[in-house]
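Curious: why these numbers?
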Amino acid sequence: MTNSLIIYCSAFLLVLTLILGAMVSIVRTKLNVLYAYPNEPDQILYKLVRAHANSTEYVPVVCVIFYLVNLVGITSVDEFMILILTASRLLIIMGICIPKTMARPNWARTLGSFGTNFCALYLIGKVVVELFNM
């Protein structure tokens, strides 16, 4: 049986990605930009496109990791890592969209990136160890 936390976190990340895609479409329409986007890190369209692209790259992989962890057996530490990873993905999106520019690093993007990679590596490592123990 699938852990409900995995379903909620996966659904949240997938909906977040879809919302970002819709926001890109809305802003494109308002700015009358049909394709491409300005290469200016302080422009809202640039930030939304980058946030959507980042989310589109990571969320499917993260959902597969969640599924694999569920298959090998989930512990309370795994649940904590899943929550941190999900929060880290949100933090990255906030770190891309909220600051005035993406030209400079900020704590939200840095912490979100670290949390995403650390938790993902932990969960993948757990899956590999469990597979070797079967």
Observations:
- DSSP finds four helices and no strands in the chain.
- The radius of gyration is 17 Å.
- The CA atoms of residues 17 and 57 lie 10 Å apart.
- The mean pLDDT is 95.
